[in-house]
Amino acid sequence: MGVDHYENFPVASILMPPHLRHPVGLIYRFAREADDFADEGERAPAERLALLQGFERELDRIEAGEAPAIAWFAELAAVIRDHRLPLQLFRDLLSAFAQDVTQNRYPDYPAVLDYCRRSANPVGRLLLVLYGDATDQNHVWSDAICSSLQLINFWQDVDIDYRKNRIYFPLDEMARHGITETQIAAREANGPWRTFMRFQVDRTRRFLQSGAPLGHTLKGRLGLEMRMIIAGGDRILTKISQANYDVFRRRPVLRPHDWLLMLAKSAV
To answer: What is the CATH number of domain 104-268?
Structure first.
């Protein structure tokens, strides 16, 4: 599970075959920098959107066979060309990050999943193309894993996101469980909060595990990498439960002993 910067994006590791590390690193750089445009610093919304539109123009140049204006995009263009990576997946990422600038509440679970479809799933699909394993069934499993990792990141970062005036919980489910924004602002983690979070964690775990066959379909080091990613997401969910769902005061992170547990679980 990639935790270097943007936690739902798996990045090249020692398990990644050497010839794929550079392409994966470029995909990660695209996602990381675009996400930073939407999230980091004190920029005004118009400036954030303009920066994202700049990346969009670079994709247009690549599509038209023109030289990119941003130097490192020349490397990305070569990777896109050599591996036949779908440009639409990069555009989907940009649309999700732009949405973070313009939308901070989600009415229901399908709306949250639509955001995940564009903010996380494209990374998994791009990796499948690089692996040479972009089948319809693998797409289904990969989407389940990537969307789940995005949801797990939301459940980790409730407090952080709220300080950015963002809530990724479905508003209709909050209302159904008696959860209010006032409670989130006050960092209240008792009573209905635990029931609500247990529901989110349990559903997300089922969703994550529905993609688990991908870890055994991909062969060799790639399969182990995927099983480690799934184990990492599952471990974070377990830590949320062990904290009695108080993610405000005990934000779950992976420690060295967790990696050992994940490796032991993934090696079978």
So the answer is: 1.10.600.10
